[in-house]
Write a structure and sequence with these properties.
The complex is a heterodimer of chains A (210) and B (222). Chain A has 210 residues and is α/β, with parallel strands linked by helices. Classes of the chains: A alpha/beta (210), B mainly alpha (222).
Chain lengths: 210, 222
């Protein structure tokens, strides 16, 4: 039985990529119910930190921990990763794309149509994903976070390619997730007006200090 | 289990829609086998003798041709990251992807082979034996090829490297496949001996392919 997630933390994380130290002795803490907004210049390691939490990269030193959550699952298994790539197959329709991820990730939450309505794509359900615009692809990818329930959302530049109305809708959905006791780590270089947020600034200074 | 059945259904849809690999393999097989009689000439006895070998070489090349996108397409669109993070065991994901790949590209080769065998002037017994060896042997080609596909997942134009990596491992499959097919019509070797080894290679690769492929995919992230 899963308990609610309380806190995600990293202690003195160090990570190298391509022989270059990207993260050095980084510690952070993200509490449930508020968003941790990671900012920093291009190449400061924002995406790297998210991929590290998602288990896609391994740190050289330091560790990640989670208070609460389902003890049977690893941290990545409790995360939704909304990265730069949309994980959509152009040959499949909007509905088939989302339906696959709903069945594959398990523990279904909303139905495909509820999630599509939430991101404003319900009318395009039968259209092949190849015909979607960049913003629509982004919204369809985001709908993946709604069809299955996972407590931790890792959002990498979540508002890129979105218009103002879609951005407002996305912020509203993220707000609902936070209200429900969810945990969000978002990497961005735009201002993201979440209701409750902490910030973590990554920069060359962080790297050089170590 | 529903996660894996959903994966199988999606892989089949992708293979059979525009840009999918299902027909491409079968067409390539058709080209290879059709060209040989033109090159070899109208010596019917010779064609009948080399028929099983030509069908096997065609099937091997057709399988290799369609394998390079097995995992690369998922990596390119970011889907592989989500699969790696998910609860479904990666070994089973690789197994299901291989089974779907074989159903979409290997099975059509098996079905087409009796018709193409007629081009090679093969006897009915030889046609039956070759089709049976392809049915048992082509899954082994897919599973062994999946290891190469997983190893070259992060390389652009990894298709040729995949073929070079995988070819030595597929040679035993081809040797026993062809010798079983020939043994069915020629003395003194009984059909069952090479055929059993072929079946064993198929089962062995069915275990090794998913485990090795999953291990390679886990380390492809960095």
């Amino acid at each position: 039985m899963s308990t609610s997630v309380k806190r995600l933390f990293g202690r003195s994380l160090t990570l190298d990529r391509g022989g270059r130290r990207v993260l050095s002795d980084l510690s952070f803490e993200a509490a449930a119910g508020s968003a941790l907004v990671v900012t920093g210049a291009n190449g400061a390691g924002k995406s790297t930190l998210l991929r590290l939490i998602a288990g896609l990269l391994r740190p050289v030193a330091g560790d990640l921990g989670l208070d609460g959550g389902d003890p049977e699952l690893t941290i990545p298994q409790q995360c939704h990763y909304f990265g730069h790539m949309d994980a959509l197959k152009p040959q499949l329709s909007v509905e088939e794309n989302l339906g696959f991820w709903r069945a594959f990730t398990g523990s279904a939450d909303a139905t495909v149509f509820e999630a599509l309505a939430r991101v404003g794509l319900a009318r395009l359900a039968s259209l092949p994903a190849a015909y979607l615009s960049a913003g629509q692809r982004r919204r369809l990818a985001f709908a993946r976070l709604l069809v299955t329930k996972r407590p931790i959302w890792l959002l990498d530049e979540p508002t890129s390619a979105l218009d103002a109305a879609s951005e407002a809708r996305l912020l509203e959905v993220v707000g609902d997730h936070l209200d429900g006791g969810g945990l969000v780590v978002a990497a961005t270089h735009l201002a993201l007006p979440f209701a409750r947020m902490d910030s973590l600034r990554l920069g060359p200074s962080v790297v050089e200090a170590a | 289990m529903s996660a894996l059945s959903a994966l199988f259904v999606r892989e089949m849809k992708l293979a059979t829609r525009v840009g999918g690999g299902a027909l491409m393999g079968a067409l390539f097989f058709l080209i290879v086998v059709t060209v040989v009689p033109f090159g070899v000439g109208p010596d019917l006895n010779l064609l009948a003798r080399i028929g099983p070998a030509i069908l096997w070489i065609g099937a091997l090349l057709a399988t290799l041709l369609s394998l390079d996108r097995l995992f690369q397409a998922d990596r390119d669109d970011g889907g592989l990251d989500l699969v790696l993070m998910g609860e479904a065991p990666l070994e089973l994901v690789v197994l299901i992807k291989c089974l779907a790949h074989w159903t979409a590209t290997g099975l059509p080769l098996v079905i087409a082979s009796p018709m193409l065998a007629v081009f090679m002037n093969m006897e009915p017994v030889a046609i039956g034996a070759t089709t049976l060896t392809l049915l048992v042997g082509t899954p082994a080609l897919t599973f062994v090829g999946a290891i190469g596909a997983a190893l070259t997942v992060s390389l652009r134009r990894g298709g040729l490297l995949l073929a070079i990596l995988v070819l030595p491992l597929t040679v035993p499959v081809m040797i026993f496949g062809v010798s079983a097919a020939t043994a069915a019509v020629q003395e003194p070797v009984p059909f069952a001996t090479p055929f059993s080894i072929l079946a064993a290679l198929g089962l062995f690769s069915m275990v090794l392919g998913p485990i090795a492929g999953a291990a390679a995919l886990r380390h492809a992230g960095d």
